[in-house]
Every structure is written in structure tokens, then in C-alpha cells.
Design a protein that fits this description.
about 200 residues; mainly beta; four-stranded antiparallel β-sheet; about 45% strand; globular
């Protein structure tokens, strides 16, 4: 009963969540809920992904709640930018090529995972300095002509590797390793995936 009440209250308060844009959403469908400790207090926090199925673009929102010792949950951040809408050009247009796959929590790391037509990519966040900062990006993508590129960017260390190889025989075509410092680290609520060449 507490779980149902929590979900209902979550859906009802979505429209009042602070966002930087002025668009009004009607998030009416819960896509998934995951639990795990995100702030190292040994309490199971929650991440909820919801969608506005009435909107022409069908946008998503990620909400992150910290569990309090009292048993209640506090909304700490939300983003309608981290997951691209299902129909970026409206229902009469195309479906997003960066399809949302799932959210996971492992060892305090929040991962938001996406499916590509020929691959997938992932953003990893850690709660530090009062916000969820991007600490990792990885992507595997095939180009349709037998080549596969694997990218791994550890934003904490600045090390970014990219390897392209033949998918049929494993022959390495290119393999690069660069140090790229990005400071301050991007915050979850500000991030738009694939907005730049690095993440």
C-alpha cells in the first residue's frame, strides 16, 4: 500500500518539479522504478522514469529520490533532458534513434542506458558535491559496413579511448587514447546526450 501511495504522489507532484524550461508536461505513465543506495547512507534511494504519453513528442523524465531515515522520500533532482523524447518531431515523424533502454544502480553509480540502431551507449553518474555528476560515458556502435567502434570516457580521470575494429575478423583499424579534462563535470539535470562529440 505504501508503494502504491508513493507512486501516486510521485505522479501527482511531477508537474510542480522545478525545471529550467517553461513547457508543461503531463507525465502519466511510469516506465520503470529502480532502487539502490546513491548517497552512501545505506538507505535504498529510488529512481523513477516516467513519460508523458499524451504529448505529441512523448517526452520522458528521470526523477531521483533519497530515502530519509523516517522512511519518506525526498526528490533531489529531476531531468526531462537526459532522455530524448520518443518522437522528437511528433508522432507523425520518426522514432528517436537514441531509444531509452533502462536505468541501473550499482555500487552507488547511476547508469542511464540507451539503445542505438546498431549499438548502445551509457551515461554514468555519481552523487558528489551536492549533485549527480557525469563520471563516465561508453558507447559501442557499428557502422553497417563491418566496422565496430568502442568508446570509453572516464571523465573523472580525463582518459578517453576509442577503438575501431572489423567485426568479422577483429582486425584493429584504429586505437586512440587521449586525455581530455572537462571541468566542472556535467550535471545530470543539464545534460543532453550526444550534444557534443565527447558524451
Amino acid at each position: 500500500m505504501k508503494q502504491i501511495l508513493f507512486i501516486l504522489l510521485t505522479v501527482l507532484q511531477v508537474n510542480s518539479i522545478a525545471q529550467s524550461d517553461t513547457t508543461r508536461y503531463n507525465f502519466d505513465h511510469i516506465i520503470m522504478t529502480v532502487a539502490g543506495d546513491l548517497n552512501k547512507d545505506n538507505l535504498p534511494d529510488k529512481v523513477i522514469v516516467i513519460q508523458d504519453t499524451l504529448s505529441e513528442t512523448a517526452p520522458y523524465q528521470v526523477q531521483i529520490f533519497f530515502k530519509e531515515k523516517s522512511g519518506s522520500y525526498e526528490l533531489v533532482t529531476a531531468s526531462s533532458r537526459i532522455i530524448e523524447p520518443q518522437y522528437p518531431e511528433g508522432r507523425g515523424g520518426y522514432i528517436s534513434g537514441n531509444g531509452f533502454r533502462d536505468v541501473t544502480i550499482r555500487n552507488g553509480i547511476l547508469s542511464i542506458n540507451f539503445q542505438l540502431l546498431r549499438g548502445h551507449f551509457e551515461h554514468k553518474f555519481r552523487f558528489r558535491n551536492g549533485s549527480f555528476e557525469l563520471i563516465g560515458f561508453s558507447m559501442v556502435n557499428a557502422n553497417g559496413i563491418g566496422e565496430m567502434t568502442t568508446t570509453d570516457f572516464n571523465l573523472s580521470t580525463g582518459i578517453r579511448t576509442e577503438k575501431t575494429e572489423r567485426s568479422d575478423n577483429g582486425k584493429v583499424i584504429s586505437n586512440t587514447r587521449k586525455k581530455i579534462w572537462i571541468r566542472p563535470l556535467p550535471k545530470l539535470q543539464d545534460l543532453v546526450p550526444m550534444e557534443n562529440e565527447f558524451y
